[in-house]
C-alpha cells in the first residue's frame, strides 16, 4: 500500500502547494514512485504548478523528475450508492487508482474546510500542516488568552484532525504522524519567533504533533512557480553556482525530509 502524505491547513497562503511540490519532486528524484492529487478544485495551485513544469520541460527539451499528477475523476450521481457522498467517491476512486502502483500519494488540500479535505485527513499516514510564523495562523491550532497568552484549548482545525484520528482508530489503521512546519520565517522579529516556538512546543505536547523546520521567506519561491521548478532543479536549468540563499533553502528542504522520517526515504542532496 502507498504511504499517504496529506498537506493541510484551513488558511490560505501558508505555503501548502510549495511544500507539496518540493516534497513530491524530491521523492521522485530519490527514485520513489509518487502520485499527486490537488483537492482545491477551484484554484488548483499544485495542479497548475505541475502543468507549468510540464510546459517548461517541453519548451526546453528537459526531462525533470515530477510526480504523476491526476485530477479527481468525474462521477455521475446516478452511479452512487444510496446515501453515498459524491466527494467521498471521487477521492476514494482517485486514491485507489494510485495505491497499487505508487510508493507515496501526496494530497494537497485547499485552504478551507471542505468535505474532500476532511476525508483526506482521515486517509493520512503523514499529515503536514504548514503554518506561517505568526500568532494569526497559530489561532488555527489553538485558542489563546489575550491577557497572558495561555493556551485555552484546541481550535477548529485541531478538532478536525482529532476527528480524523478517531476515524482511523475505529478502522484499525495506524495513527496519523502529524507534523506542523513553521514557514515564512523571517530573519528579524526574534522575540516573536521565540514566542511562537515556545507556544508550538507547549501545544505539540498537548494535542500531539511534531514541529519541523519549514521554509524561510525567500524571493526564489515566487520565481520558481511560473516555470514549475523546485530548488533541486536549479543546476539542471543552467544555474552553475547557487547563491547562499539557494543553498540555505535546499538545506531547509533536506531538514524537513529528515524530520518527516518517511518510510524508506534517505535524503541524498
Structural features, described:
This is ATPase. InterPro entries: DNA_Partitioning_ATPase (IPR050678), MipZ (IPR015223), P-loop_NTPase (IPR027417). This protein has a seven-stranded parallel beta sheet, sandwiched between helices. The relative contact order is 0.18. Helix 2 (45-60) links the parallel strand 2 (34-38) and strand 3. The radius of gyration is 19 Å and the shape is globular. It has helices at residues 16-29, 45-60, 86-99, 115-123, 135-138, 156-170, 190-207, 219-224, 244-260, and strands spanning 3-7, 34-38, 68-70, 104-108, 126-132, 142-144, 151-154, 177-183, 210-213. It is built from nine helices and nine strands.
Can you tell me the CATH class? Answer: Alpha Beta
Low-confidence stretches: none
| Secondary-structure content class | alpha/beta
Instruction: Using the coordinates shown, work out and report the CATH topology.
Output: Rossmann fold
Q: Which CATH architecture is right?
A: 3-Layer(aba) Sandwich
Residue share in helix: 40-55%
Give the strand order of the largest sheet, numbering strands 1, 2, ... along the chain.
3-2-4-1-5-8-9
Shape: globular
Give the percentage of residues in beta strands. Answer: 15-25%
Report the sheet with the most strands, covering strand number, pairing sense and barrel closure: 7 strands, parallel
What's the β-strand tally? 9
* Total number of domains: 1
Provide mean pLDDT, rounded: 92
The first-to-last residue Cα distance is: 27 Å
**SSE order, as H and E?**
EHEHEHEHEHEEHEHEHH
CATH superfamily: P-loop containing nucleotide triphosphate hydrolases
How many distinct helices?
9
Radius of gyration, in Å, reads 19 Å
Amino acid at each position: 500500500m502507498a504511504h499517504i502524505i496529506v498537506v493541510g491547513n484551513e488558511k490560505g497562503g501558508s505555503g501548502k502547494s510549495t511544500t507539496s511540490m518540493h516534497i513530491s519532486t524530491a521523492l521522485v528524484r530519490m527514485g520513489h514512485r509518487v502520485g499527486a492529487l490537488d483537492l482545491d478544485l477551484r484554484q488548483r495551485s499544485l495542479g497548475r504548478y505541475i502543468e507549468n513544469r510540464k510546459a517548461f520541460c517541453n519548451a526546453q527539451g528537459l526531462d525533470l523528475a515530477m510526480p504523476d499528477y491526476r485530477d479527481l475523476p468525474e462521477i455521475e450521481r446516478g452511479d452512487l450508492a444510496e446515501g453515498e457522498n459524491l466527494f467521498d467517491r471521487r477521492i476514494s476512486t482517485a486514491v485507489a487508482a494510485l495505491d497499487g502502483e505508487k510508493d507515496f500519494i501526496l494530497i494537497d488540500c485547499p485552504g478551507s474546510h471542505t468535505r474532500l479535505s476532511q476525508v483526506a485527513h482521515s486517509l493520512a499516514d503523514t499529515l503536514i500542516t504548514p503554518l506561517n510564523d505568526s500568532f494569526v495562523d497559530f489561532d488555527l491550532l489553538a485558542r489563546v488568552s489575550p491577557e497572558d497568552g495561555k493556551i485555552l484549548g484546541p481550535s477548529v482545525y485541531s478538532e478536525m484532525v482529532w476527528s480524523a484520528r478517531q476515524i482511523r482508530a475505529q478502522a484499525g489503521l495506524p495513527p496519523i504522524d502529524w507534523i506542523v512546519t513553521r514557514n515564512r520565517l523571517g530573519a528579524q522579529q526574534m522575540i516573536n519567533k521565540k514566542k511562537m516556538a515556545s507556544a508550538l512546543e507547549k501545544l505539540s505536547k498537548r494535542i500531539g504533533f511534531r514541529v519541523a523546520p519549514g521554509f524561510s521567506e525567500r524571493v526564489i519561491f515566487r520565481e520558481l512557480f511560473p516555470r514549475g521548478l523546485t530548488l533541486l532543479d536549479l543546476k539542471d536549468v543552467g544555474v552553475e553556482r547557487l547563491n547562499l540563499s539557494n543553498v540555505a533553502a535546499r538545506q531547509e528542504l533536506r531538514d524537513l525530509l529528515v524530520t518527516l522520517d518517511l518510510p524508506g526515504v534517505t535524503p541524498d542532496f
